[in-house]
Design brief:
Elements (H helix, E strand, L loop, with lengths): L4 E7 L4 H5 L12 H17 L2 E6 L3 H14 L3 E3 L42 H18 L4 E6 L1 H12 L13 E7 L2 E8 L3
Parallel strand pairs: 1-4, 2-3, 2-4
Antiparallel strand pairs: 1-5, 5-6
Length: 196
């Protein structure tokens, strides 16, 4: 029987936008000191349980910084994948999170269909683009453990991609991890790691 590999999906550590509770204005927003500490703790947690062969990361600064911190702990290379970038929030970029609830079409019961005004992306579209990346990573992983660094909305979309259901409730915390079992590109159990 072949070994079961794991896709370790991790959200970047706290960014300046997260701290300010705003949709990040640009891809260049960095991690905070708290965010760097969150990632170091997550890296230690991963290192104690898994042996990743590589890290695949979003190109956004906060994700790349997260990947670099993890790479130092895990001793593995980092690859960049553009389609792991955060959801586009269109005209809401730089605006408070709470503003989303007052935009046209916002329906918490169908949040995955909501499209931020001014050229934003629906979560179903994020799931399609990021899910295709995850499928490629899983298909090439040969049952290895692989760390995948992305963003809050991408984590929500990838949960849907691997489980087939939208997870209600809040977004995965900064440096939060979802462990997905996989063998030869087929997904098994997905577990959200809640511990700090």
């Amino acid at each position: 029987m072949s070994r079961v590999g794991h896709l370790l999906l991790i959200r970047h550590g706290e960014s300046e936008g997260n701290r300010e509770r705003t949709f990040t204005a640009t891809p260049a927003v960095p991690l905070t000191d708290l965010g760097r500490g969150q990632v170091q703790a997550a890296g230690a947690w991963i290192a104690a349980r898994y042996a990743p062969a590589r890290i695949v990361s979003s190109p956004f600064t906060r994700a790349r910084q997260t990947a670099d911190i993890l790479a130092k702990t895990l001793g593995v290379p980092v690859l960049i994948e553009d389609n792991l970038r955060e959801r586009s929030y269109g005209a809401l970029a730089g605006q408070p999170y709470t503003l989303a609830r007052s935009t046209p079409g916002w329906d918490p019961a169908l949040y995955w269909e909501w499209c931020p005004p001014g050229g934003g992306e629906r979560l179903v579209d994020v799931a399609a683009r990021a899910g295709a990346v995850l499928d490629r990573i899983a298909g090439a992983a040969a049952n290895d453990d692989v760390v995948v660094v992305s963003h809050g909305a991408v984590m929500t979309a990838l949960w849907r991609h691997v489980t087939g259901v939208w997870r209600p409730g809040r977004v995965t915390r900064n440096a939060g991890i979802i462990v997905v079992e996989q063998r030869a590109g087929c997904y098994g159990q997905a577990t959200l790691i809640e511990e700090e």
